[in-house]
Amino acid sequence: GALVYQYPRRTICKSGTSMRMECQAVGFQATSVAWYRQSPQKTFELIALSTVNSAIKYEQNFTQEKFPISHPNLSFSSMTVLNAYLEDRGLYLCGARAQVNYAEQFFGPGTRLTVL
Amino acid sequence: GDSVTQTEGLVTLTEGLPVMLNCTYQTIYSNPFLFWYVQHLNESPRLLLKSFTDNKRTEHQGFHATLHKSSSSFHLQKSSAQLSDSALYYCALSPDSNYQLIWGSGTKLIIKP
Questions:
Q1: pLDDT tier, A101 (very low <50, low <70, confident <90, very high otherwise)
Q2: How many domains are contained in chain A?
């Protein structure tokens, strides 16, 4: 079956430092990977969408300078939170799709970021 | 723009009573995909139901929902609530198969004995 792994599951970083998280698709080829953030007591916000052979598209309020993403192949993506501050805390989800024209996403367990 | 509305932020029910969580959406696209995700405490969201067929009931794990394009709704229902149903429920929209998910604000469901 299709599985998505995320690493690490939980992480704590000091304010102003950076933190990298990874997303691995197993059992299918992740032609597109979306990164979402769920801030405390809030719903999920799309950070960016990465599609193979296309430029990474960031949503309003999120930038490549703050959340650089790498999607080097069809099974792996990583995102870094640069210069993390308190407002960056939350659950970061990776959602991967197997085909471009396929709505359902497979989610990883998330990386929970705490900023001290 | 595209959006999802979940009117109830919190629903508290007694075990055994029926559950109905509201979800309406807005999109200019004529063939949207609608989803219900359930998120338990400290876990990631898990897909509960999905649909893109108008007026067709979809069921899973005792829950059911029907996409009604005429009213832009995809309400989640269950005939008898269980204590283990307590969780956060998110309705989500993919306006087109190429789009990412647009999430509703979520409904916290608490089932009491």
A1: low
A2: 1
pLDDT along chain B (113 residues), means of 10: 94 97 95 93 87 95 96 97 96 84 94 96
- Best of A57, A69, A104 to disrupt the B interface (most B CBs within 10 Å) is A104
Q: What is the pLDDT of residue A21?
A: 97
What is the three-state SS of chain B? CCEEECCCCEEEEECCCCEEECCEEECCCCCCEEEEEEECCCCCCEEEEEECCCCCEEEECCEEEECECCCCECCEEECCCCHHHCEEEEEEEECCCCCCCEECCCEEEEEEC
What pLDDT shows up at residue B43?
Answer: 82
Residue type, B32: P
Tally of domains in chain B: 1
CATH number at residue A37: 2.60.40.10
B36 touches chain A (CB under 8 A): no
Please indicate whether, in this complex, the C-beta atoms of B45 and A44 are within 8 angstroms of each other: yes
Q: What is the pLDDT of residue A36?
A: 95
Q: Which domain holds residue A11?
A: 3-115
Range of the domain at B68: 3-112
